[in-house]
Amino acid sequence: MQKIISRATLGRLPLYLSYLKSIDSEYISSSAIAQDLDLGDVLVRKDLNSVCGQGKPKIGFQTKNLVKALSKALEVGKTTPAIVVGAGKLGMALLDYSGFKDYGLDIIAAFDSDESKFAELNGQKPVYSMENLNRFCRIHDVKLGIITVPDRSAQSVCDALVACGIDAIWNFSSIILSAPDRVTISNENLALSLAHLHISQNH
Amino acid sequence: MQKIISRATLGRLPLYLSYLKSIDSEYISSSAIAQDLDLGDVLVRKDLNSVCGQGKPKIGFQTKNLVKALSKALEVGKTTPAIVVGAGKLGMALLDYSGFKDYGLDIIAAFDSDESKFAELNGQKPVYSMENLNRFCRIHDVKLGIITVPDRSAQSVCDALVACGIDAIWNFSSIILSAPDRVTISNENLALSLAHLHISQNH
Questions:
Q1: How far apart are the first and last CA of chain A?
Q2: CATH code of the domain containing A34
């Protein structure tokens, strides 16, 4: 039973997991969780349903099974490597950001075409030249790539990532990228997010 | 007639505007725009409807009126100031990012509690101390604030922004902020975005 977990549900899973680890009852119902976390009954039931199926009527879920299912969904203990192409300010900010670890993700290196940015310093994540991209992705089995280059280079970087076997791309450029169907692309338009916040406030 | 414009619609407005500026017919129909931009008929009609009402049957929109309405919705020619609190890598990347200009937004300064980050250099946007926040926001009539501080400081920064008269906050921390109802908060959880791309690909 593998369902697609919505973005909103995924965002609440770490909350459920830390809550479940803090209690010591053998069974727990979704309504008890909802009450303790101050969330809606239906919401919690749907969230848990999408990772662990239905609980037993009147009893609920076995706590340890729920912990196991949540850990699996969040890939706790497993680390998925990702890389970022474009070692500008945004790329370096992402490379440096520690929050990805909560979801078992680790941006392990950055790549850039600008020689002045190459660096392999102790205790810091490395920045390599684009020539190393293919070999690095194959060796580390990297399937997730992030594009933070200027718009004019975004499509060629996308092509390079696809050629390296990447199958999911997080695109921070404002270009609509074209890639084979097997590749999932998620567009992150920061300017649009701020603009939408602005107009929402003004209406 | 002021409607809320959806995020997706807002994202397409710059495209319509640059297209309309490139043609020289007096009237244009939404289906002609759809065809030229390779977008769906219904989609374009709904988009234009939300900024300019309905076109005339069989004739469509007067091009110059449509340009005017789109420019107004995108606030072309007007610049709305915003500030960022937290001059770490992410905050500085946002301060430096030029893409906000397409939507008439300008992040004009950053604020931080760490003295070593204060700087007012020629040709660069300034980083000020938190003590200057209130005066700066009042003088420049800043209503948009961005939070890029660590989670532990996010709520106190939120409180400070609210006290400065900010009414829209873009929150990059993973904390759920509490603020008065008049303040619109938009949460940007980068780790969650990447995690959701990852699980979407794996299912």
A1: 43
A2: 1.10.10.10
B85 shares its domain with B180:
yes
On whether residue B106 sits in a domain, the answer given is: yes
Q: How far is CA B106 from CA A191, B83, B103, B144, B190, in A?
A: 10, 8, 9, 10, 21
Q: Kind and range of the H or E element at A88?
A: none
Cβ burial of A96 (10 Å; 0-12, 13-18, 19+) is middle
pTM for this model (two decimals): 0.81
| Residue A202 counted as domain residue | no
Whether the CB of B108 is below 8 Å from some CB of chain A: the reply is no
**Which of A18, A45, A73 is at the close of a domain?**
A73
**What are the pLDDT digits (tens) for B49-58?**
988 888 888 8
Residues A102 and A185 in one domain: yes
Q: Which residues pair with B81 in a beta bridge?
A: B106
Q: Are A171 and A186 in contact (CB under 8 A)?
A: yes
Which residues in chain A touch residue B200, judged by CB atoms under 8 angstroms apart? Answer: 4, 168, 184, 186
CA distance B59 to B57: 6
Question: Closest residue of A to B168, CA-based?
Answer: A201
Could you give the ipTM of this predicted complex? 0.81
Q: Residues B51-91: pLDDT tens digits?
A: 888 888 888 899 999 999 998 888 777 889 999 999 999 99
The minimal CB distance from B192 to the residues A7, A168, A174 is found for: A7
